[in-house]
Structures are given as structure tokens and as C-alpha cells.
Amino acid sequence: MEEKRSQVVLLGFWASGPCTRVALALKLKGIPYKYVEEDLTNKSELLLKNNPVHKKVPVLLHNDKAIAESLVILEYIDEIWNQNPKLFPHDPYQKAKVRFWVNYFDQKIPPAIYPIFLSRGEERKKAIENLNEMIRVFYEGVKKDFAEEFPYCEGKSLGLLDIAVGARACNYKVLNDALGMEVIQRHMNSEFLSWMDALKKHPLMKETLPPHEKLVAKFIEKFGPIN
Fold it and tell me: What pLDDT tens digit does each residue of the chain (227 aa) get?
């Protein structure tokens, strides 16, 4: 128990979805922690020392031990602080399926957003169609594999899929406002968007997600004039 009560530090960046994941998990478990905001244009010695391979956030420091990569951190949190609510399913098969779909989301969906910002005209239209198709495949697959527990609704505890996806997709309207158009299209992905809208009402999501207007400004700053 002494190790579990030791200091926990999260090195992060306010606009990072993976960092939001870790903050959500710590709050959900009731784990006190210190947050250290990183300047990614001038990375601290603390970050470089504790993640010398990728030199990225998030990094969790627990009892002077460094853990990097958000999904690795989430699994560490769930194993060290193994009280309820659990993040991962108990059943090994269910746990493997959760890992599969979170990896699919991370590998396919955020990378598909960048071509939308970097293209124009027909290329942008195709990029939006591609993103929406991948979201459709993701949501249909998750719904099939987790029919009894999915999706989140008010009163339920957040699970790993809610945290991992919600931390990156609950602010989907940022894309619309930054580009001046509907990016994740409701006629094609209404259930996915309803899931995100329900998650946004959870008190921890409200408390932890980056501010909408600040995030819109960050996208515009990063990509320049995009209309």
C-alpha cells in the first residue's frame, strides 16, 4: 500500500488526447496526482530523461518509475490501483478485443484527420469520406463485440473504450468549427456521435476535456488558413 500512496506525476500537454486519457483514468480511480504541463517546442529535461526513446507525452511518474505511451499507462494504472472501477474487462478475451479496437482507432482515425486539413476541393471530400468510413467500421465492430455493455449511457461507469476514444473524439465539433463544415457526418455516423455526446455529459469528461474554443484556435494555428 505504501507504493500506491507515493507521489504520482503526469507530464502532459493540454491539447493532447492521449494525455487526457491518462488524466481521466487517474481521476476515475480517485488517484491524487501532480500535473506538469510540457512545452513541446522546448521539452523539459524531466521529459527527455523519462521518455528518451519517443520524447513525447504523456509520461506517468510513479515512485520514480517512468511509464510512457497512453495505453501502456492505462493498463499500468488498472493493475497497480486495481480497485473498482476497472478500466479493462476481467475476461482475457474481452480484454484482447478492447485492445484490438483501441489500436484500430489510434492507428486509423486520428491519422485520417490530417489529410482533411491539408487538402482542398475533391481531395478533401475524399478524405472526409475515408474518415467517415473508418469510423463506421470501428463503431459497427465495437457494437458487435460488446453488444451488452456498449455504448455508454448516463449512470454507467466509464470503461477503457469510453476513455480512450472519448478523450480524442468528444471534441469532434472542433473539426467542424476549424474547417467550417461537418467532418464526422451525422447521416453516416449518428450512433458514434450520440455516443460522444453522451460521454461529454459525464462530469469527469466535462472537467478534463480541453476547452473547445482554445482547441479550435490551436488547430487553426497549426494548419494556417484552411478554408
Answer: 444 456 999 999 999 999 999 999 999 999 999 999 999 999 999 999 999 999 999 999 999 899 999 999 999 999 999 988 999 999 999 999 999 999 999 999 999 999 999 999 999 999 999 999 999 999 999 999 998 777 777 778 899 999 999 999 999 999 999 999 999 999 999 999 999 999 999 999 999 999 999 999 999 998 876 66
DSSP-assigned states of every residue in 9-60: EEEE-TT-HHHHHHHHHHHHHT---EEEE--TTS--HHHHHH-TTT--S-EE
Q: What is the DSSP letter of 165?
A: H
Does the pTM surpass 0.85? The reply is yes
Q: How many helices (H) and strands (E) does the chain have?
A: 10, 4
- The three-state secondary structure class of 189 is helix
Across-strand partners of 67? Answer: 60
- Residues 186-220 as b or e (16 or more Cβ within 10 Å = b): eeebeebbebbebbbebebbeebbbeeeebbebbb
Instruction: State the sign of the Cα–Cα–Cα–Cα dihedral 77, 27, 108, 90.
Output: positive
DSSP string covering 101-155: HHHHHHHHHHHHHHHHHH--HHHHHHHHHHHHHHHHHHHHHHHHHTTTT-S--TT
How many residues can be counted in the chain?
A: 227
* 62: helix, strand or coil: strand
Residue 56 CB coordination number (10 Å): 19
The packing angle between helices 70-80 and 160-169, to 10°, is 140
